[in-house]
Structures are given as structure tokens and as C-alpha cells.
Amino acid sequence: MNVKIDTKEKFSVITPLDAGIPANMSEELGRILTDHLQKPIPHLVLNMEHIAALDPVAAEKIALVQESFYLQNASFIVCCMKPDTEAVFEAAELLELMNVTPTESEAWDIVQMEEIERELLNDFDEGIDEKPERS
Fold this sequence. Notes:
The chain is of the alpha/beta class. Helices cover 44% and strands 18% of the residues. Strand 1 (3-7) and strand 2 (12-16) form a beta hairpin.
């Protein structure tokens, strides 16, 4: 599978360059995506602007990968889907479970907002853990 990887300060953008993702390429795509969970900055944007055909097995793999990112407190946003590709996710009832944006710029914004949210929640959790001193 041919992909372009663009590394930014807070996240990476992976853009598959093939016109389609058949079922037999879904495992390879999953491996490429989940490898980013081991990076110092694991947040990921999957830009699907070149994908005209998507097998339902590949769509399910993408949804599972996205879930694994969120379980590990990392962002995973899918952007730039064509209507036919979006229809595959919709038919499999996966679209409403996913974080999808129409443009890459909007995906960047979501990654940054989620990072701020994680920082705020972490600060909040740390405040709860601290017990007041008794005199």
C-alpha cells in the first residue's frame, strides 16, 4: 500500500495514495495506522481524498483502529472522504461512531482541541487526587 506520511508538530497525516482499499489490504493499512501509537506524538489524521473504492472489511478495520487510538488516549480523525467511501461506512453503521471531518484543516483543529481537552482533564484529575492537608 502506498501512503504519504506528513509529520506535524502535534500529529501526523497519513494519506493513502491508492484509488481503493480492498479487503486484502485492510490488515496492512491497520498496521500502518496502529504503528503510530508507538510514536512520541501518536495523534493521527487519515486523509482519504484519493480513495474512490473502499471494501467494507477495510472500513471496519479503520473504525476498529480509531477505537484503539481513543482507548489509548490518542486522537484519530478521518477526513476528506468521497461520497462513495462515506456510503460504505454509513452502510456498515460505522460513520456515527467515528470522528470524521470534511477537510484536513478541520481534522487538525479537532486534534488540537482534543489535546487541550486531555490536558484539562489531566489537570482536573490531578486536582482530585490531591487531598487537603489537615491541621
